[in-house]
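Below is just one:
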Amino acid sequence: MNRRYISEQLRRLVANRANNLCEYCLIHEDDTFFSCQVDHIISLKHGGKTKAENLAYACAFCNRNKGSDVGSILSNDNFVRFYNPRTDKWSDHFQLEGTIIKPMTDVGEATANILDFNNIDRIIERQTLIDLGRYPHPSVVEYTKK
């Protein structure tokens, strides 16, 4: 079997497990122009597998910005891994402050920087969704509770 192939059944499992939210920025797929995609948390080129425990649901922007990266170098010159939706709790690494996704840890900072959570276009998108009562989506509660 092609190790890049993700079956429809596996795609549905990933989407349902995430409540159809991007597991990184928490936008609901219904509120994105490009919908959401299945992301390899650890990319194939880094030895990641196409198995449920290595897959996350990601909006097109988060997935594109993350690419095959697994972490980043912070200002202290240390390599820091990205947030892993399968092993990390979102609220341990991020906090929603209005339209801003505030990183709370080095993992959060590395992830927020590379995935560009607080790019002005993303902030405007979230503000529009907040004004419409669509962000954070009701199914976000499990990610943001402390």
Observations:
- Helices lie at 8-17, 60-66, 90-93, 106-115, 120-131, 141-144.
- The two ends are 41 Å apart (CA to CA).
